[in-house]
Design a protein that fits this description.
Layout (H helix, E strand, L loop, with lengths): L1 E5 L3 H12 L3 E5 L11 H7 L5 E4 L5 H13 L5 E4 L5 H12 L4 E8 L4 H4 L2 E5 L2 H14 L7 E5 L3 H29 L6 H7 L9 H12 L15 H12 L4 H13 L5 H14 L8
Parallel strand pairs: 1-2, 1-3, 3-4, 4-5, 6-7
Antiparallel strand pairs: 5-6
Length: 292
């Protein structure tokens, strides 16, 4: 099958390679001419035979919205656009309606797999019509991991990115649980080899996972994590997950706490904890550590 890909970064470039390895004809466009197959979106569309399918792998927000609009002006009736980035699910309805005025189909695809996807395959959560999903199945089959798992047609337009949003919210919570356990081990006077404990959990335990494998890998490279800052950013999907929980009145204790912990990581000296310290001093005369 023939496919165009817009955005050949860490994931888009590897997806192009995985699809080509599976025998598909892929034409990629990126603003970086050194990795691009063509010199413009116009050239990409011209290089594809109709009915076309174009997969977008650019940053969410305006870059994706602008790319959808540009493709809407270039594609023809019967073509399909797939947004494989981390767009908010509410953008999908807007994008689909815009393209529908041109007779162009739209599919949203939540993609998980990161830099390991080239070798292991990408977990795909897709949303769209049955007809469009069926047409794109050869692409999905080539990208997904081998076996029965790693792909779901989650529902109509928006369902793929919604599923990926919740997936990433869960990821926040899992990562923070591992992180807290690691910190407690490091603080212990009893455990003398923290990396070895983490490694021992990788088989036969109920907490084994790929994330745990990656923590073990990180500790092999840097046993004390001395070369890594504690600052942790967020891509937005954790926030969107919590916002949806508020909208639907669903309690998300762990995911919400893990999101707020990331905010705390960006503070050199927490104003909230300064206030706590001041209050303890005021009501109880507790000692206050002076700022350096």
């Amino acid at each position: 099958m023939q496919l165009g890909i817009v955005g050949l970064g860490k994931m888009g470039g590897n997806m192009r390679t995985r699809l080509r390895n599976a025998g598909h004809d892929v034409v990629g466009y990126d603003r970086d001419a050194s990795i691009s197959d063509v010199d413009s979106l116009e050239s990409l569309v011209k290089a594809l035979e109709g009915p076309r399918a174009v997969w977008i792998m650019v940053p969410s927000g305006d870059p994706t919205r602008d790319t959808v609009k540009a493709l809407g002006e270039l594609l023809s009736e019967g073509d399909i656009v797939i947004d494989g980035g981390n767009s908010r699910f509410t953008d999908d309805k807007v994008n689909a309606e815009l393209l529908a005025t041109k007779g162009v189909g739209y599919v949203d695809a939540g993609v998980s797999g990161g830099v390991w996807g080239l070798k292991n395959g990408y977990a795909l959560m897709v949303g769209g019509s049955d007809e469009n999903i069926a047409r794109l199945m050869p692409i999905f089959e080539a990208l997904k991991p081998e076996g029965e798992f790693g792909f779901v047609h989650a529902g109509g337009v928006g369902a793929g990115h919604y599923a990926k949003m919740v997936h990433n919210g869960i990821e926040y919570g899992l990562m923070h649980a591992y992180a807290e356990g690691y910190e407690l081990l490091e603080a212990s006077e009893v455990v003398t080899d923290v990396p070895a404990v983490v490694k021992s959990w990788r088989e036969g335990t109920v907490i084994r996972s790929w994330l745990l494998d990656l923590l073990d890998r990180a500790l092999e490279e840097d046993p004390g994590l001395a070369d890594i800052s504690g600052y942790s950013s967020d891509s937005g999907e954790g926030r969107w997950t919590v916002e949806e929980a508020i909208r639907l009145a669903v309690p998300l204790h762990v995911i919400s706490a893990s999101l707020f912990a990331r905010f705390e990581s960006r503070q050199d000296d927490s104003p909230a904890m300064k206030a706590v310290s001041a209050l303890r001093n005021q009501f109880g005369g507790h000692a206050v550590k002076k700022a350096e």
